[in-house]
Amino acid sequence: VTSKKYVDDLMSGYQGKLPGSGANKLMIYDDETGIGEKSIEATLVSNATGVPTVGAVKTGLDGKQDTINGTPGYVMTGTGTPGDVGERAIYGTAVYSNSLVTAETVNTSVTDAVNSSLIRVDENGAPSDTGTLWEINTDVFALGVLPSGYTQLEYIESTGTQYIDTGLKLNQNNIVEVDWMYYTESTITTSGRMFGARYTSGSRNSFSIGSNSGKASIETYTFAQFGDNSARALNNIVIGQWNTYKVSADGFYVSGVKQGDFPVATFETPFTVKLFAFEQASSSGATPAVGGGVGRCKQFKVWNGDTLVMDLISAKNSSNVVGMYDLVSGQFFTNQGEGEFIEGPPVGN
Asked: Is there a contact between 315 and 324 (Cβ–Cβ < 8 Å)?
């Protein structure tokens, strides 16, 4: 007779018979003595509790995208190869020629371009904040031409006592171009100069443009001086009309039409050229006097040969001080005379 203890000791070395769980099952330990099972899954499905085959894992991974490390400021684009993606820059972050642009940027740019291409005018064609007509602006500047804090104006206006000192002494190598309007008849004794400087004895060393006080009205006469005794006249100036005036050794031009030649001469103005005025002194050595011109100015450019050395455009700063901003030097030129410039409307309004 076998004792119970002997039987227990003998049976303790054996595992209970494994249950028949069916095909495609894995045996697992679910506790210290028990045996459990997991199904073998050939397909990955949601909420599955079985064990996937290598094929199922590979099939699942093949349908996933590799991690994408995109470039900041770019958007992802598709390609012709599954799993491969490209990218395209957004306008303002990379090369402009092949960049994308948001609808907001397009809308703003188009609106600004249209606004800056039109000028509000009255029935006579003169710029007016209350005008009922619109005129194409033939002197449009690039958008964003001024730095932050400045507002570009259609023009600034002098009443005869305001002027800007350009700081430039001009000579026979310089070219000056000014966009100007006489908006009223000038009563200034210095002839309503657009700009200038000269030594008055025989008008030597002169570089200037102005209306002639010896005539009845600036509506009938203006002139330019370049060098020594070299005045060139222009008749039929219309009050309220914009023109582009250009003076150089090549001659005197008004809106691209040549008015006459100047004799070739070597000279230099004795004083710095003033815009809306001119400075002069006689042979007696009298104190230089600055006289103002009554008019409106959009832009004033100076070249030294082929090099643009000054490009003033009408503007005001964040403190509402009116003057002209130089696109070449980045300097803001303000009134050096009496009173204040009158500001024209902002460009685009």
From this structure: yes
pTM of the model: 0.58
Q: What are phi and psi of 24, to 5 degrees?
A: 55, 45
CA–CA separation, 137 vs 345, rounded Å? Answer: 13
The string of pLDDT tens digits covering residues 158-177 is 988 899 999 999 999 999 99
Q: 242 and 179 in contact (C-beta within 8 Å)?
A: yes
Reported confidence tier of residue 80, pLDDT bands at 50, 70, 90? confident
Three-state secondary structure call for residue 119: strand
> Taking the CA atoms of the chain, what radius of gyration do you get in angstroms?
42
- Residues with Cβ within 8 Å of 325's Cβ and at least 6 positions away in sequence, in order, are 146, 150, 152, 312, 313, 315, 331, 332, 333
Nearest to 296 by CA among 195, 160, 180: 180
N-term to C-term CA, the chain: 119
Q: How far apart are CA 96 and CA 184, in angstroms?
A: 46
Most confident of the ranges 96-105, 137-146, 326-335? 326-335
Helices (H), the chain: 4-11, 54-62, 103-116
Beta strands (DSSP E) in 53-152 are 74-78, 85-89, 118-121, 133-136, 151-152
Q: Give the residue from 266, 249, 223, 344 showing the smallest Cα distance to 303.
A: 249
**Cα–Cα distance for residue pair 164/183, rounded to 1 Å:** 19
Token pair, residue 118, equals 């039109």
Nearest to 273 by CA among 181, 205, 197, 332: 197
Amino acid at 135: E
DSSP 346: B
267 near 171, Cβ under 8 Å?
Answer: yes
Chain Cα centroid distance, residue 289? 39
